[in-house]
Structure formats: C-alpha cells, structure tokens
Design a protein that fits this description.
The complex is a heterodimer of chains A (381) and B (514). By secondary structure, chain A is mainly α. Chain A contains 17 helices and 6 strands. Chain A has one domain. Chain A has a two-stranded antiparallel ribbon with strand order 1-2. A two-stranded antiparallel sheet of chain A has the order 3-4. Chain A is globular. In chain B, strands 1-2 form a two-stranded antiparallel ribbon. Chain B has a two-stranded antiparallel ribbon with strand order 3-4. Chain B has a two-stranded antiparallel sheet with strand order 5-6. Chains A and B meet through helix 5, helix 6, helix 7, strand 2 and helix 15 of A and helix 2, helix 3, strand 2, helix 11 and helix 16 of B.
C-alpha cells in the first residue's frame, strides 16, 4: 500500500460516511414533516417513534464522519471547523436539541411540554440537512480561508485563518451552496416520507395522500435544485492540482473532466440517479410498494459518493480557498502521515463487521410495522 | 495569564471556559451510563437465568433511568469532538495525526456498538429472544466502556505524549507507534481509574434511589435487592479504585510532577515527604509558592506522599520551586530549570523558522541538518518557547488542591457507606443511613467532577504536556464569538439538565412496574 493509495482510500471512506450520513438524514427529513404528515397527536407520535428508533445511527454516523475526517485529514478539520465556526456551531446546536427531544418529549416531568420538543425536532429536521448540504457544497465552490503552516513559529501563530469576520455564515450567501443545501433538505424529506411509508401501518394514517403529497412536492423541488447544481458544477471552472509541483490552478470544466477521466463513476452516478427516481416514482404510484425507501436510499448513497469523489480524486483540490488559491486543501497536502493512514486502514477492516451487526439488529426490531398498540404498551417515545 | 477569578476576557480564556463547561456537563452523564450499564446487565442476567418477572421489571426500571441519562450524555458529547476543531484549530492540526485516530476508532468501534444495541435494549423486549436482548444490554455497556477507553487514550496522550515525533516538513507531530499511544501507562491508569469511579457513582445512585423507596416503604423487595446489589458492586469497585488511585498518583508523579505538586500544594519538595490532609489555602487566590515553603495550618500524614509518588517511604518528591529551578532526580539525571527549558524551546522555534527558510531557499544540506539537530534536541521543550514567565507554568493550586481532597475524601465516604449498607444495622439507624445514602447521590457527582478537575486543571497551562500551551493551540476567533456560544451552551445545557432531573424524579417516583 502506497501513501497515494492510502490517501485515496481514506478519501473514499470519508466520502462514503458522508454519503451514508445524507441517506440517514431521512430521520431529519421525516421530523421536518411531523406537523405536515401527522394530522393528529397519535400520528405525530407514530412519526416520532418511527424515526426515534433510528436517530442514533444518524448521530453516530455524523460523529464518526467527524472522527474519520479528523484522523485522515487533520488540516481540513482545523481549517473548516475553526474557520466556518458559526456554520458548524449552528449544525451542532441543532443536533444537540435533537438528541434529547425523543427521550424527553412524552415523559412525565417534561417541564417544556411535548410540543416544544416536537418543534425542536422540526428545527433540526430543517437546519441539519440544509446546513450540512451547504457545507458540502463548499467542496465545489470554495471557502474564504488562508493556510500558512509556518505561522506557528512566527508572531501570527494561527495556521488556518478565515479571511473575513463572518466565520462561515458567508458560505450561506453563495447561491450554489444554498442550492445544494436545499436539494439535500428536500432529498431528506423524500427519504423521510418513504421511511414513514415503509415503517408505519397504512391504516394508522388517514390516507395515502398524507405521505404522497409532501413526497411529490419534495421530489420536484429536489430534482430542480439538484439538476441545477449538477449542471453548474459540470460547466464551471474547478480547482485542479498539479501533483508534480503542488501548484493549484483553475481548470475549466474540471469536474466534467473528472467524470470523463474516471468514467466508471459516470456509470455509478447514473445507477444512483435511476435508483433514486425509481424508488420515489414506484412508491408514488403503487400504494402497496414499501421498499422505495431502500431503493432510493441506495441510490442516494452512491450518487452522493460519486459527487464527493469528484471533488477530491483525479488531482483536485477538495476544499478550495477563494481567498488564496494556493491555500486550497488537496488529499496530498492535508492528509495524515502514511503511518497513521496505514494504521487506520487496518482499523477500517472492522467496518464490514460493524455493518453486519447493524443490519442484523435493525432487522430484528423492524420485523413488523409500528402500531399504536405497541407505542401505548411498550417502551416508546 | 488568567487565574480563575481573574479571567482575562480573551479568546483563549473563553475557549478554555467553553471546553470546561461542555466537558463538565458531559461528565455529569457519562459515569451514570457506565455504572448503570453494569447494574442493569447483572439484573437482566438474573432474569435470563431465573425467568423471574421480578428481575425483568427491575432491569427495565433501571434501563428507563439509563435511557433518560443516556440521551443527555449523547447530546453533550457531540460538542466535545467538534470543539477540538472549532475552538482549537492549531491544536487539531499540530497533533491531529495522532489525536484524530482514537476519536475515529471510538466512532467506528464503540459508538456504533452502543447506538445499535441500545435500540435493541429499549425496543426489543417483545421482538428478540431473551438471549439476544441480554447480549444487547451488555453490548450497550461494553460499547460505552470501549468509548471511554478511546477517549481516555486521546486525553492521556495530551497528559503524556508518547509514540510520536515532530516532522519539520509538515510542521506537526506524527504518530510513530500506535501501540505506545493506545497502551500508554497513563492511558491504562486513567481508563481503569475513570471507569471504576463511574461504577462507584452508578452504585451510589442505585443505593440512593433504593434507599428512597425504603424510606417511603414502597417496592420494598425491589429496593432491598437493588440496594444490596448496588452496595456490593460499589464496595468491590471502591476496593479496586484504591489500588488504581495509588498507581495513578505514581504515574502522575513520574510524568507530570507539576500536577502532583499543585495537588499537594508542595512548594518546596525533598525526601520523606508527608501527604497533606488539609491546609489553609485561600480558594480564590494563587498562593505565594515562591516565598513560602508550605501552606499554613498544614495537617499531614508523615512519609505518605513519598510513598504515593515513588513507592518508597523516603522517596524524593519535587515541589513547585524545585521544578521551576531544576533538580536532580534520584537516578542522577538532571531536570532542567524553567529558564533552561524556555531557552531550549525558543532555540527549537528559531531553528524551525530557519529550517523552513533554508528549505525554501535551497540552502546546503549541512545547514539544514544543523537546524534539524537543534529542532530535535529542543523538541521535548518546544512549548516552553512560548512561555514568558514562571507563573504561566504553575496550575491554579487551590482548585487542584481542594478537588483532589474532595475526590479522595468522597471515595472514602462511599466505602464507609457501602460497608454500613451491607452491615446488619436495624431500627432508627437504618433510616438515618438511608437518608445519608440519598444525600450521597449529589455528593457522588461532585466527587466525580472533582476528579476531572484534578486531571485537567493540573495539566494547565498545557494542551499537550510541555509541547503546546493553551494560547498556541487555539483558533483565530473573536472572544465575543466564543463567549456567545459559551453562554448559549450554558443556557441550553442548564435548561436540559433541569428537564432531565425533573423527568428522572418523576420516573423514580412512579417506580418499577411490579
């Protein structure tokens, strides 16, 4: 295993974790629809209990994504988190609120009332996907930072600095960041609708339209935003990297070139898009079909994976700087040492084992759809 | 530098305060998670073995409390991981090559185990077999314990950096031995001591809650069995914690002598050192360790500190002034004075500047090798190059001193409590003992937090011992930005804590479904 291979491998792992995280944000998507789909208190409770059994996976994936990024690309961690401070803090606040909202909302002694925590779930359901999507978009559009490793031994001291005072809020002023953020938000809603359709007994919701209508609306909005973003990145200039000199430069149609030069990714991307659309459309037109969640979920993972790999593989700067082009981060200039990446490679061999027990446990408790009887007579939120 | 009540409103201070706040809140919930995990595991094992509905409902009751507490632990924990990046960006880059690995492993190995099986534990009672459910309960606890292992490996590395080298090319520390990092003696000590302390807190909680039921004469069988189980578990954990405590103190003496000196308020050291039981130290001001040899009103156990720190009644223990002025160790090696360390650190910093310049300008190999040699010899003291005066490297003594005594004193109190609970005491004294047990629940939290304060205040001013002072590890943020998030966290966590306590109390009041 060469250093270059390990850098690509860890880029793949981090991108895969991010892609799985986007899929698992069906929890946020469904929560953002608590008051749209849930017309009665019982229906809202069903939705909360359906997502409440899975929120830990989203949360854990977010934390593991952070840990893996830290271990493999510490310069990204220090630059993005320390620089885009407000963006990340708002994301974190929303996830903190989510973590307690399930356990607390229907317990005796809840001083704030059930509705407060339901609204906090809605808040996390909107802010989580929107801001994480916006943050991911900066991998294409760039951020306003400067990196100078030598600062540690001169009076400047700080190695990674944000070049303006907004500390990440400026990322939200970029129309393309907002575009992807909103696309991820509507994608999360699509997955949320499909998940509720998959998990909650049909008889318990007043009619099928309660899910189909928001699914339909979210689908068109998602498609419009996603295609606009995809069209933009395939036609815009991208941040290229010369491995021989280490110089970063702008290259027209860089991401389109990446797709063409790594043609298997085109195939995977197309498969992903087809799966996403098939899962949605089949669920819309076939009431009894409940597996759309898994089909669209699989499509989501592979589509997002391909998009993220486009930002880093094929000599591309994955975290570009709009303030100083040469400060842009590449796999080569921001990764951990070969020793650390190799050590972590061995640890990552545990991942299939982890996935296996997650699948086993997930299936064990999801054998039957959630019913009101279960919520009223068993452990429930 | 700031000291406790004289906080300078700078970014560094707010960043420290924010990390301390979030860590303190997080540590309110983690010990109960670790402690209750064992208790409910034992109870469910009883159910598995006997098939008794009593043990099933008993386990389910403690699992309900576990769940309420667990949610807050998760909520407060996520902040800590990301705070390394948001508030300590220089730190994240300079040591991320080593520090990031335990965090990633924690996520992959521990968090997924915890989050997967906790869902089965709560929702799987009527869906999976008894055996699978029991395994899920134990695996939830195991996941939490493995999580503790990796985060304490990371923390221990900050206290005692091993298995790494400085790379002047990348300007950062890089890992050279994963085994040295993961199995460092400091990490092993810290893990054992911390997990045992969490078990003691869990035991005190179970004993306290059970005592409340006995005082109220409700659920007597449930309370009596839980009380005994909690007391036995607590007593065993306490016995083990005494051993690990002694070993931890020994390790601290070898690796962080300044921390030990601050814990003991030992201004001037020497051989045959006594262990201070109590002394008259003003909690709100740093004592004058330069002008006095020992604190006033000192009550001490002869030779005990020497034994604790060196395993020898007559062993040499350096005091704060010895560490600042330099001293000769018992094995004959000389520990440099602070001034010498500052000089070595500054030489390493200058050499690193020159090295980078020479590489850029393509200067001769000989010059570059010369700079490398200076960097390597000064690197153990690199952080001292950023130190300006003696006061900067002395931790805030009153916090270290009193927190240590609260920790040890509380530990002794709990041993006494567990013994008395198990003793055949009857009548009015039994009732009094149950009130004491109930009162011990908040005390256990104070004691547990005191242990954390000893470990972390004693490390100051270093984020990485001797390598990186706090003021070099931060991000470039305005103090106002961090102050705002500090206040938001304070309000948020305090509100959620109030809700959590209220729900806990209601759930306890409702009692098990027996």
């Amino acid at each position: 295993m060469t250093y270059i291979f390990l850098q690509h491998y860890w880029c793949f792992i981090v991108a895969l974790l991010a892609a799985i995280l986007v899929f698992l944000m069906f929890v946020q998507g469904a929560n953002s629809l608590i008051f749209t789909i849930g017309k009665t208190a019982d229906e809202r409770r069903l939705i909360v209990n359906a997502t409440g059994r899975k929120w830990e996976f989203t949360f854990t994936t977010l934390v593991t994504f952070g840990g893996a990024f830290f271990a493999s690309y510490p310069l990204f961690y220090s630059t993005s988190f320390g620089g885009a401070y407000w963006l990340w803090m708002i994301i974190l606040f929303s996830f903190v609120l989510q973590a307690v909202s399930y356990e607390f909302q229907n317990k005796l002694g809840n001083l704030l009332g059930a509705k407060t925590f339901q609204w906090l779930l809605v808040l996390n359901g909107i802010l989580g996907p929107l801001l994480l999507g916006g943050a991911v978009a900066t991998f294409f559009t760039g951020s306003n930072f400067i990196v100078e490793k030598g600062n540690i031994v001169d009076s400047q001291i700080i190695i990674s600095r944000w070049a303006n005072a907004s500390h990440g809020l400026d990322d939200l002023l970029n129309i393309w960041n907002l575009c992807l953020g909103l696309a991820v938000f509507f994608l999360a809603r699509i997955l949320g609708c499909l998940y509720i359709h998959n998990r909650v007994d049909d008889e318990l919701l007043h009619n099928h339209d309660q899910i189909i209508q928001p699914l339909w609306r979210s689908t068109w909005l998602f498609l419009g935003l996603f295609l606009a973003f995809l069209g933009h990145i395939l036609t815009c200039e991208g941040y290229a990297y010369d491995p021989a000199t280490g110089v970063i430069f702008m290259e027209p149609y860089k991401y389109l070139h990446n797709l063409i030069e790594m043609w298997p990714l085109v195939v995977v991307l197309l498969i992903g898009v087809v799966f996403v659309l098939f899962g949605i459309l089949w669920s819309m037109f076939h009431k009894a079909y409940k597996r759309g969640f898994w089909v669209t979920g699989f499509g989501t993972v592979v589509t997002v994976l391909v998009l993220l790999l486009l930002t880093a593989w094929n000599n591309t700067a994955y975290y570009p700087s709009t303030a100083d082009l040469q400060s842009s981060l590449t796999m080569q200039n921001s990764s951990s040492s070969e020793f650390t990446l190799r050590t972590m490679f061995y640890v990552s061999l545990l991942v299939p084992f982890v996935l296996a027990y997650i699948i086993y446990a997930w299936r064990s408790i999801d054998k039957k759809e959630i019913t009101l009887d279960e919520i009223n007579n068993d452990h429930a939120y | 530098m700031n000291q406790l009540l004289n906080i300078d409103m700078t970014m560094v201070d707010w960043a420290r305060a924010q990390f301390a706040l979030t860590a303190i809140y997080h540590w309110l919930f983690v010990p109960l998670t670790l402690g209750l995990a064992v208790v409910m595991g034992i109870m469910e094992t009883q159910y598995y073995r006997t098939g008794s509905e009593f043990w099933k409902q008993t386990a389910k009751f403690w699992q309900r409390l576990f769940g309420i507490n667990f949610a807050m632990g998760v909520a407060t924990g996520i902040i800590l991981e990301f705070e390394f990046g948001t508030n300590w960006s220089n730190y994240s880059y300079l040591v991320g090559d080593i520090f990031g690995a335990p965090l990633a492993i924690e996520g992959i190995v521990a968090f997924f185990m915890e989050s997967t099986f906790v869902a089965v534990m709560f929702f799987g009672w009527n869906k999976v077999s008894k055996g699978f459910h029991l395994a899920s309960t134990w695996l939830t606890g195991l996941g939490a314990t493995i999580s503790a292992w990796w985060i304490l490996v990371a923390n221990s590395w900050m206290q005692h950096p091993v298995g790494q080298t400085f790379n002047p090319e990348t300007v950062r520390n890089e890992m050279t031995s994963f085994a040295d990092v993961a199995l460092s003696p400091v990490a092993v000590d810290k893990f054992v001591h911390t997990v045992l302390s969490a078990w003691v807190l869990g035991a005190v909680f179970v004993v306290g809650v059970s005592s409340w039921y006995l005082l109220k004469k409700r659920h007597t069988e449930f309370a009596t069995k839980s009380l005994r189980l909690g007391a036995v578990f607590g007593l065993i954990s306490s016995a083990l914690i005494m051993l690990s405590g002694h070993h931890s103190a020994y390790t601290v003496a070898q690796t962080q002598p300044m921390k030990l000196a601050a814990m003991e308020a030992l201004y001037k050291g020497g051989t045959d050192q006594p262990l201070t039981i109590i002394a008259g130290i003003n909690p709100f001001a740093q004592p004058d360790y330069e002008a006095t040899d020992e604190p006033p009103l000192k009550l001490a156990v002869p030779y005990a500190l020497s034994f604790l720190a060196t395993n020898d009644m007559n062993g040499y223990v350096p005091g704060i002034r010895d560490i600042l002025d330099g001293y000769t160790k018992p094995d004959g090696t000389i520990e440099p004075s602070l001034d010498e360390k500052i000089q070595l650190g500054q030489q390493a910093i200058t050499a690193l500047q020159d090295y980078r310049k020479a590489k850029k300008e393509g200067t001769s190999e000989e010059t570059i090798n010369c700079q490398l040699s200076i960097i390597n010899s000064g690197m153990p003291y690199f952080g001292y190059g950023y130190v300006k005066d003696r006061a900067q490297v002395v931790p805030y003594i009153p916090v270290c001193f009193y927190a240590f005594r609260v920790m040890v004193g509380g530990g002794c109190l709990f041993i006494l409590l567990f013994i008395l609970i198990l003793a055949p005491i009857r009548g009015r004294w039994r009732g009094t003992l149950h009130w004491v047990a109930l009162f011990c629940i908040p005390v256990a939290y104070i004691v547990s937090e005191a242990g954390w304060l000893v470990a972390e205040f004693g490390r100051q001013p270093w984020t990485i011992q001797d390598m990186l002072p706090t003021w070099v590890g931060v991000s470039e943020l305005g103090a106002s930005a961090v102050m705002i998030t500090f206040l938001l966290f304070l309000i948020l966590f305090t509100t959620l804590l109030a809700v959590e306590i209220s729900i806990m109390c209601k759930t306890i009041k409702k009692g098990p479904e027996l």
